[in-house]
Hints:
- By secondary structure, the protein is an alpha/beta fold.
- It is built from eleven helices and nine strands.
- The protein starts with 8 loop residues before the first strand and ends in a 9-residue tail after the last helix.
Amino acid sequence: MSLPACKTLLLNLDQGVLHLTLNRPESRNAMSPEMLADIEAVFASIAGDEAVRAVVLRGAGGHFCAGADLKSMMAGGMKSPAPGEADPIAGINRAFGTMLRAVQRAPQVVIAVCEGAVLGGGFGLACVSDIAFAHTDAKFGMPETTRGLPPAQIAPFVVERIGLTQARRLALTGAQLRGAEALRLGLVHESFADEVELQAKLADSLKQVLGCAPKANAVTKAILLNVGKLDMEQVLDDAAAKFAACVRGPEAPEGITAFMQKRSPKWAQ
Length: 269
């Protein structure tokens, strides 16, 4: 597996963990169309690679992501497209949703490290992670409505993450919250006060993730993401088929044997 060349990201694959750093610190890692394409390309390249067990998302320069790069969005002008032509502004906006779905559907465990600005698209990116850590002073929010815009692509993912009631309050006020409140709302799972505490908690979570079989984790994530999207009978039928495939696959025999022999399974060694 070879990772794509990216101008807006820093990539480091270390013992099955891909560290993906948003690297536009001069703009607090605001997402340009190029960054969206880079993120999509990376997740496409690792989609079928079980050697990549987890992805850690972080931002360079002390900020996670300040949202969309509005300058690049407006660079194409505000003129309406001619009949039959694609709307360039709608296309740029829709690209955010495409990127978020790619991250959400990744078979790997996605961990977000939220610090500094976690706004707009950055807020949405945190919402599609499987595990999220927040610095106690991190600033979360959806400021789009204060700019005269709707949080069009991130809103559905925020609703899925924290529920409709809280999402409505945040989206319709542009209110911002700190790491402790993000933890209370269930947006993130743990908070940290400094780099030492973060690294200890991150190492503990990664140890737990790597103790799980990669295929079983990917299948489990797919089952969880079907809930609310499919009829429950379909969810359960699909889950039963996935369970049977796992029983007949290589991981279950190894995992059960390791449990009975009181040793770690091969994937955790």
